[in-house]
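Sanity check record (used in CI):
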Amino acid sequence: MAIVGTGYVADLYMRSRDLHPDIQVAGAFDIRQDRLAAFCNYWNLTPFASLSDLLRALPKGGIVLNLTNPAAHHDVTRACLEADHHVYSEKPLAMELGQARELVDLARRTGKLLGGAPCSHLSEAAQTLATATRTGTCGPVRLVYAELDDGFIPQAPHQKWLSESGAPWPYENEMQTGCTLEHAGYVLTWLVAMFGSIHSITAFSAATVDKGLEPECRVPDTSIGILKFRSGPIVRLTCTIVAPHDHRVLLTGDRGTLEVRDTWDNNAKVHFRRRFVVRRRLLESPIPRRLRLAQGPAGRRAKRRGAASMDFLLGPEEMFRHLSQGGVNRCADQMALHVTEAALHLQNAGEASETYLMQTACDPVPAMEWAGSLR
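Expected output for Gfo/Idh/MocA family oxidoreductase:
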């Protein structure tokens, strides 16, 4: 693979390489020469002077990781596909649904794979939760509460947040893109992988805090959505940079509840609370049962805290597996497009949104080979 964009997130992908020794990095390119030099020096990679140089050097069958700023995703991905390369793009695929559709159509016309982040639905935690829902542990899922609240970020010491090779966290770009476009996918991919297509979304989004930028940034920093899935479940999803940090997801079914405390942790525990009656009271068990897969991805666990507790290369690895072995591709363009459409609507809903009917569709994602059953 080769990397385009060597900012903050690129270090997280490179650190994940420790878990994927078979993946070779051909080199990197960035329009910021100082950042490119620092990144390549730190990771001992080949720097390319231009995007065209990188695309010419990448062997056929390789994958370009598009880790540029969201506003550049469409143009960079298009150039890579037109150069006859597969692409794995950071979220979103594009800043407009029409542009995202264009990229999917181009990939299919040229016979290239197009995958999109996030890929945490391939993690042990997500696969455990999906297996529990698929096998009916809590009964049919009726309602889901999902939170992606990151704390009061404008007051955080974000100026001190540096990546491993020294890239600053791109605060201004994050604020101008919007936290929902940046982060909602971390839950949307889990939900779409488990339940398939979203039928409709009723959402509200607004700018609620001063982000300290000039001119003032009025991009929504809070969104609240009600998502109705074609297969039945109703989901309430919140995404903010205002409310205290909370990355929980809670599924309620006929027999009880399933809960994951942090969807950003690939190794997060999955708990089941059985519902029962004591005398005249209906209760959920005060002592949850931890669910474990009968067979997990041994030796493949991200061990660091925060965002680095995610393995960012699970998606590219899945694309490489599909290229070499065939079969189902769990990181396919239909999921990336569907998640992009949902995130775009949640971000841009505004304060007087009507119910939005989704235009794209996505089938549930088959379980990983090692995630067939629970202990």
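The domain at 2-116 is CATH 3.40.50.720 (Rossmann fold). If this sentence no longer matches the regenerated tokens, the check is flagged for review.
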